[in-house]
Design goal:
The chain is of the alpha/beta class. The chain folds into two domains: 139 residues, Murein tetrapeptidase LD-carboxypeptidase, N-terminal domain (Rossmann fold); 138 residues, 3-Layer(bba) Sandwich (Glucose Oxidase, domain 1), CATH 3.50.30. Helix content is 30%, strand content 26%.
């Protein structure tokens, strides 16, 4: 970690959580000389979310407008970040997002998608604070310093194309599908689509990909990149069957083995960035 004190802004745009669930990661940040910055409003509760949409949006805006914050991370996922998007639209955040790294996953896919398509803000698909995977010095250091990622992958199928150079975008599949028909996601023609999820049967994966396709969002993607698909099978059918069926219809290759998602994180995956897939070398490179 850097010698100077890094400041991490902490927000809670999604589900409510108990304060003690955040404590291990707060202590971890202090241990590695990262100063946590948060407003006490993140501990509010409104039904199942961490406060009202206005509470959560106001808190996020305050954190983003604090100029000395280096990275913004999120308490937990669950549900709720989509609720704050219409509130955020009233504030121009373009200048505030510069020089800040963002990291989140799961329900934060909605917020990160909004910031990407409205402002072109890239992000890291990485663990939220209530997860033990958040407490990785190397992972957080890579995010803070905006480092590229080069990993080995597995190939589910091949097409005539063996090398793909394109931007990569995505997140939690069920959240991406829920954005279809809203102004917060746009078509990603020419992109690599990254997906991951948990506890979704193969037919549901097919349904969500079909929804994104029929909404015109993924009709002309160049490849599918799959992260952790935790408990996404109903034997003998698995998530691979559903994804492969879809990929054949689009005539695109599928890579998998990306260790990011609900099943855990070995690294944070940069998204919204230029990427390269080499199917012969079985390699993925993403450059923030």
């Amino acid at each position: 970690m850097a010698s100077k004190t890094i400041k991490a802004g902490i927000c809670a745009p999604s589900s409510h959580f108990k304060a003690e669930a955040l404590l291990p990661s707060l202590l971890f940040l202090k241990k590695i000389k990262v100063e946590p910055i948060l407003n006490q409003t993140i501990y509010k509760k409104d039904l199942f979310t961490a406060g009202t949409p206005k509470n959560r949006a106001t808190d996020l805006i305050k954190i983003l407008k604090q100029k000395d914050i280096d990275v913004v991370v999120f308490a937990r996922g669950g549900y709720g970040s989509a609720q704050i998007l219409s509130v955020l639209e009233k504030t121009d955040l373009k200048k505030d997002l510069k020089q800040k790294q963002l990291m989140g996953f799961s329900d934060l896919t909605a917020l990160l998608s909004y910031l990407y398509f409205k402002y072109g803000k890239t992000y890291f698909y990485g663990p939220n604070m209530v997860s033990s995977h958040f407490r990785s010095t190397q992972l957080l250091d890579d995010v803070i310093h905006n480092r590229p990622l080069k990993i080995k992958i597995q190939v589910l199928n091949k097409t005539k194309t063996t090398f793909i150079k394109a931007p990569i975008f995505g997140g939690c599949l069920s959240v991406l599908a829920s954005l279809a028909g809203t102004p917060y996601i746009k078509n990603i023609d020419g992109y690599i689509l990254f997906i991951e999820d948990t506890n979704e049967a193969p037919y549901k994966i097919d349904r969500m990909l079909t929804q994104l396709y029929q909404a015109g969002i993924i009709k002309k993607i160049k490849a599918l990149a799959v992260g952790n698909m935790e408990k996404c099978e109903t034997p003998p059918i698995t998530w691979k069957d559903a994804v492969l069926k879809f990929a054949k219809e689009l005539d695109v290759p599928v890579i998998y083995g990306i260790k990011a998602g609900h099943g855990g994180f070995e690294y944070a995956l940069p998204l919204g960035c230029p990427a390269e897939i080499d199917l012969n070398k079985k390699e993925l490179i993403v450059r923030p």
